[in-house]
């Protein structure tokens, strides 16, 4: 989407999507890390679906303006869990992203 095609409605939808997806996505990743033995997300206050704990400001602005953004990275301490657990917790973010995404059609 080009900058000239941005409308107030598209900005509102992107902000709403950012709030919903960032909270659910961050909560799933933090929950997976805690379930697999990492105490870091719980101590950092990231074990929640409140989106403000997971939103990165620059990534949020990029999502709203350009349609591409990111959230704060989740710190996972590999020393607190086995290597298999670390691999599983690191794979929770693409799994949650796949569940929250919708397929796009190729037609305009």
What is the structure about, briefly put?
The protein is an all-alpha fold and 108 residues long.
Verbal overview:
The chain has 108 residues and is mainly α. It has one domain (6-100). It contains five helices and no strands. Helix 1 packs across helix 3 (57-66), helix 1 (8-35) runs antiparallel to helix 4 (83-90) and helix 1 (8-35) runs antiparallel to helix 5 (92-100). The termini are close together.
Q: Report the C-alpha radius of gyration, rounded.
A: 16 Å
Coarse morphology: elongated
Strand content: under 5%
How much helix, percentage-wise, in residues?
40-55%
Sheet bearing the most strands, described? none
Terminal CA distance reads: 12 Å
Q: Specify the oligomeric state.
A: single chain
Number of domains in the coordinates? 1
Name the helix and strand elements from N-terminus to C-terminus, one letter apiece: HHHHH
Please tally the β strands and state the result. 0
Task: Please report the number of helical segments.
Answer: 5
- Uncertain regions: pLDDT < 50 for 5+ in a row? none
Secondary-structure content class: mainly alpha
For the residues shown, what is the average pLDDT? 79
């Amino acid at each position: 989407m080009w900058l000239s095609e941005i409308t107030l409605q598209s900005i509102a939808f992107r902000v709403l999507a950012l709030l919903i997806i960032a909270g659910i996505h961050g909560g799933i990743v933090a929950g997976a890390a805690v379930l697999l033995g990492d105490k870091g997300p719980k101590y950092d206050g990231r074990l929640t679906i409140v989106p403000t704990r997971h939103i990165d400001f620059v990534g949020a602005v990029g999502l709203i303006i350009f349609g591409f953004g990111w959230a704060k990275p989740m710190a996972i301490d590999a020393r607190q869990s086995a290597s298999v657990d670390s691999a599983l917790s690191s794979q929770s973010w693409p799994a949650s992203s796949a569940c929250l995404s919708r397929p796009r059609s190729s037609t305009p």
